[in-house]
Amino acid sequence: MTINSLDPLSSLPVELIYKIFRYVPIRDVVRASVLSTFWRYIWLYVPELVFDTRSIPSSIDVPIWKKFADVVNHVLSLHKGDTSRFEIRKIAECYCCPEDIVRWILLLEKKQVKELILELPFWNKLRIQVSVFSSVLYWAHNLSLLKLHNCAMSLPSHTKGFSNLVNLELNSATFTNDTNCSNATFL
């Protein structure tokens, strides 16, 4: 028996494996690294990173919000490839502090992120009016899609950011002053 007959997924094109991984919790994507040498490093280059409550290990005796931030920080610090999509969703019982989000966006800007989706808990109504976060996000020139849920932001009015933004979706989210999204075709 050959390795490919035992592991037919390893013979799939890497791009297809990445598409499959899009629908698998990031926790399980990372766990796949123990299957074989082929799988050991493939998760480090997955272009789409989606985090939700399924990303969090349930056996650790740490507050869930802390576990969530630790998981995202760990994956982003080890991830080596570009990230076309970064998504945080379905985290109703988690809290994301602005400092964590700033750190993630700084890392994502270096990874050429094109799609950023932040579905934050409605009860938190995270006030992302921290000027550092606002200017970091505003200078993310590669963004073509931005979805913000439960955020309030204040952006610098004197700059021209979001030059490639095509899709902007706000759900219980507000910008407290004018922004420049001249290429947006879907608002």
Automatic annotation (TrEMBL):
A Pfam match: F-box
F-box domain sequence ranges: 6-54
Domain of life assignment: Eukaryota
SUPFAM superfamilies linked: F-box domain
Classification via SMART domains: FBOX
Protein name per the record: F-box domain-containing protein
